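$ fold --in a.seq
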Amino acid sequence: AEAAVRVRRQGGERVAAPDFTLPIVANGEALGDTGAPLRLSSLQGRPVVINFWASWCGPCRSEAPIIERLHRRFADRGVVVLTVNSEDDPTAAREFLKEFASTFPVVRSGDDSVRTTFKTFKMPETFVVDPDGKFGLSPFRGEITSVQEAEIAAHLDAVLAR
C-alpha cells in the first residue's frame, strides 16, 4: 500500500521517464561496449533503477553499497540498475567505483542536462522505471537507506511477478 502512495502520477496518469542517450563508462558489458551510447528507451521491457551520483557526494558514498546490493539481487532477473555519473571528474569516478568494488553499469553525463530533464535537485537521486517506460515509484531524493532499498525491492518483486 505504501508503494502505491509513491507512484509518480500527473493528472491521474503514470508519467513516462524522459529518454536519454549517454556513453557507457563502466560495467556495462551486458548493455553494450564501453564508450558506446546507451539509450534509456532501449531498455524498455525491463525494469530499470536509475541512480544519479558523483564521487564528491558524501551521501552517494553512503548509499553505494545499497545500489550494489540491488544490482546483484536483481540483475539475473532482468532488472537494470543503471547509474548516471554526473558532473564529476572521470578519474575520481573511476576511483569511487574501484573503492566500492562496484559492478553496476555506469553511464556518464559530463554536464547536468540529464539531471535537468529528470528534474533532480540534489545528489544522489534514484528513479524506478517500470518495463512500460513509466515511473513505477516517485523519485527518491537524497540517500537511499535500507528502508528505501526494501521499498524498491518489493516494487521490483511485484513488477517481475506480473
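$ fold --in b.seq
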Amino acid sequence: MKVLLSGCSFSDSCGWGNAGNKTDPRCWYNILAKQHQLNLVNVSHGGHSNKEIIHRVKQQILTDCYDLIIVQLTTTNRAWFWKEDNPLSAAKVVGGIVWDTTNELEKQSLRVVAAAFSNRINEIERDLTDILLLQRFLTTPMMLVNFGNFGQDVSKMANVQ
C-alpha cells in the first residue's frame, strides 16, 4: 500500500535528530509503516504550517497516485509567506518567531504581521476549507492526524454561540 504523509516536525524527525531525518525507527510513521508493510512517501518538514502541509499534499497528488493520504495537522499560529521574487522560497512565522527572511526589513515587517494581524479564526477557517475541498475531490481516502492545537481550536469555534 502506497501512503503519502505530509506534516510538520512531528512527522519529520519526531524529535529524534535533525530535521529531515525520517529514518529513525522510533518515529511513529516508521513504526506504522513497518507494522503494516507500507510504502511510505513522507514529504513532512519541521516548522511547516497547515497551509504548507496541505499544499505539499496537493503537489504530490498531481504527480503520483496513493492508496491513503495522511495529513498531520499542526498548530494554527504558523504562517507562511511566499517571496515575490522567488515563489519556491518562503519566510515563516511561528508564534512570535520569524525565520527564513532575506534581510532585517523583511524580518521586522513579518514581526509586525505576526503581532498585529494574526487572526487565528481566519487561519483555521482557511485551513478547514482547504482540507474539505481536498477531501471532496480526492478519490483516495484521507486521514487527519492532529498533534497540534488545530482540533482544540476547531472545537472551541464550534462551541462559540
